[in-house]
Amino acid sequence: MLEDVPYGLVFNSALARIVKVPTPVTDAIVTLHSTLYGQDFRAANPLLAALGLSTATRDSLLGRCTAIAA
Q1: CA–CA gap between residue 36 and residue 58 (Å, rounded)
Q2: CA pair distance 67, 69, nearest whole angstrom
Q3: Do 15 and 53 touch, CB atoms closer than 8 A?
Q4: How far apart are CA 39 and CA 43, in angstroms?
Q5: CA Rg value for the chain
Q6: Neighbour tally for 45: CB within 10 Å
Q7: Could you give the CA distance from residue 16 to residue 24 in angstroms, rounded to a whole number?
Q8: CB contact at 8 A, 42 and 34
Q9: What is d(CA 19, CA 56) in angstroms, rounded to the nearest whole number?
Q10: How far is C-alpha 37 from the chain's CA centre?
Q11: 3-state secondary structure string, the chain?
Q12: pLDDT of the residue at 17
């Protein structure tokens, strides 16, 4: 849980938020586990900030993927 939630579920939820796909069940699971463990799993993944996902847009995300594939 200590890796799967912040690095899996939180990361996937952040990507979905960028492309405006709701993830209510994933978000509820993250909230539940954060409560059970007494940790803020949304803040536990330093990659989100390092990758700038909080300010990313759909186009910027697609641009990153396209640049990698080229």
Answers
A1: 33
A2: 5
A3: yes
A4: 9
A5: 13
A6: 20
A7: 11
A8: yes
A9: 10
A10: 19
A11: CCCHHHHHHHHHHHHHHHCCCCCHHHHHHHHHHHHHHCCCHHHCCHHHHHCCCCCCCHHHHHHHHHHHHC
A12: 94
CB 28 within 8 A of CB 70: no
> Can you give the pTM of this predicted structure?
0.84
Q: Would you state the pLDDT for residue 70?
A: 54
Instruction: Give the Cα separation of 70 and 67 in Å (integer).
Output: 5
Asked whether the beta carbons of 18 and 64 are under 8 A apart, the reply is no
Count of domains observed in the chain:
1
- pLDDT (tens digit, 0 to 9) for every residue of the chain, 70 residues total? 899 999 999 999 999 999 999 999 999 999 999 999 999 999 999 999 999 988 999 999 888 888 775 5
Domain containing 36 equals 4-69
Angle between helices 58-69 and 10-18 (to 10 degrees): 110
